[in-house]
Amino acid sequence: MAFAQPLMSHESVQELAKEHNITIPDHYVQEHPEPTFVPNDCLPMPSIPIIDMNDLIMGRLNMDLHLKHLRSVCHEWGIFQLVNHGVDKSLVEKMKNEVIEFFTLPIEEKLRYKLKGGEYEGYGQTILHAQGQKIDWADRFYMITNPLHRRKSNLLPEFPPLLRDTLENYLLELQKLGRTLFGIIGQAVDIDKEEMLEIFEDGMQSVRMTYYPPCPQPDLVVGLTPHSDAAGITFLLQVNNVEGLQVKKDGAWIPVNFLPDAFVVNVGDILEIMSNGVYTSIEHRAVVNATKERISLAMFFNPKLEADVGPSKSLIKSTRNPPLYKTLMMEQDKKLAPRLLAVSVTYMIISR
Ligand SMILES: O=C(O)CCC(=O)C(=O)O
Ligand SMILES: [Fe+2]
Predict the structure, then answer these.
(1) Would you say the ipTM is above 0.95?
(2) The Fe2OG dioxygenase domain covers which part of the protein (predicted)?
């Protein structure tokens, strides 16, 4: 590896991967990442369940069946492909193109949004907490988009105008979808719609764009360390049709085969807590490709910052089950707040 102008090792793996004949630097080399599940005649490759939004909003006749199915998917898997979600296809395509454009910008442009010491929002790589910490083979851009007063003035407002406008439109559409989906996901586990809406209305929302460069020795690195999302739910878009996301199901790492036009929806820790453990915040990771770059866009939906997060009051009342999790204040709790702000990539379920 030879840089004319060496970059800080943790500034951009995208730049590093552009060099010919690279030797993977030590801080990217992971010891024995767990292998991907290999199917055989007795155990075929499982696939992520599909939820059809039309069934949930129009399937009045069989609504009980649809809710039961949604509940079992969120319980067994904690992840599904959402089809017929109603978000305009051309807007989604535009969003994908703008994200690709962002990562195509010269490094100097992207470094205008560079992560600063101790901050979580901006452009960069895994934050180094400790000496010897391994770094994921990916560059990321993370920022809070809602509530509006929490937006950083040097991030979204400074974006290239097309990216900024497209992201704003995309956010509005996903907020509409999120509101409907939260109501139904709550209903499927006996949480009052009003309680759900009250907690998530004008909630904390954030976005992460991730660029996974190709890696000549993909088995030596990890694109995204195994984690569960600290969010309520996550909407995930695979931007350039290159696979890499995997979920841990029954102890095995299963690749997620994104359907065209679907969002992959993750149940996050907060929904697991609110459902008193009925729903599962699934562990997931991303692997990288030997020859192709991969790009993804994740939108995280959380309760509002002043909300208390714990097992839902209406659910506990109706089921009379004892709460299995503590109730924490969304913003003030020392464990929850930094984890939510970073949507950190260390797997842990809080306060179980
Ligand atoms: O890149 C992906 O597909 C996964 C992204 C993800 O899990 C995250 O940003 O939390
Ligand atoms: Fe995630």
Answers:
(1) yes
(2) 203-303
